[in-house]
Design goal:
The chain is built from 6 helices and 13 strands. By secondary structure, the protein is of the alpha/beta class. This is Imidazole glycerol phosphate synthase subunit HisH.
Length: about 210
């Protein structure tokens, strides 16, 4: 059974994520213990809330260093604010330096942008939206069709400096990056643990991912 360390720094949706990972066959440890993280086969890095608070809690819990170490030696999946934290800087809270694992910035949706009904978008972007995938043959998208609905809750979106890592996009007033894949690192702006069948399939794919 795949051992998954679900990182606990006080800012993640741990119960839902842990329950979903367990449902797809993972042996889940909710932890901030460096020894448990080091012993895990895979890492899941969730996040909710304001970026400045998330970064402060990550630093205090030692999670920031754990993530930076893990991305070089085992599969890592980041979710929502966890994905945003991987980049260099976020516009949130008047500007916050992030982990810098990936090049690029995190920007806020402009509530003057228009949706597909020509109405102003609501910020945060909250609810179901479809995703377009760059490479459906990738093992992480196995069993998931293009234009699949996933559940989003966010006011900010990632802008990678290297567009080749974009694995899926979504449209909300602007086409934005909904997922990235780089080597052993996988991240989603949407919440798989809240996305029913498609989300569970995606988590199962991650648990079974061999790289």
């Amino acid at each position: 059974m795949t051992k998954v360390a679900l990182l606990d720094y006080g800012m993640g949706n741990l119960h839902s994520a842990g329950k979903a990972l367990t449902a797809v066959g993972a042996d889940v440890s909710i932890t901030r213990d460096p020894a448990v993280i080091a012993a895990a086969d895979k890492i899941v890095f969730p996040g909710v809330g304001a970026m400045r608070d998330c970064m402060a809690e990550m630093q205090a819990a030692g999670i920031a260093d754990a993530v930076k170490t893990a991305v070089f030696n085992k599969p890592v999946m980041a979710i929502c604010v966890g994905m945003q934290a991987l980049f260099e800087r976020s516009e949130e809270n008047d500007g916050v330096d992030c982990l810098g694992v990936l090049g690029g910035d995190v920007k806020r949706f402009d509530d003057h942008w228009l949706d597909d009904k020509n109405e102003r978008i609501k910020v945060p972007h909250m609810g179901w939206n479809t995703t377009t995938h760059m490479d459906l043959a990738h093992p992480l998208w196995q069993g998931i069709e293009d234009n699949t609905h996933f559940y989003f809750v966010h006011s900010f979106y990632c802008v990678p400096s290297d567009t080749s890592i974009v694995a899926a996009t979504c449209d909300y007033g602007v086409e934005f990056c909904a997922s990235v894949i780089k080597d052993n690192l996988f991240a989603t702006q949407f919440h798989p643990e809240k996305s029913h069948t498609a989300g569970l399939q995606l988590l199962k794919n991650f648990v079974e991912w061999k790289i």
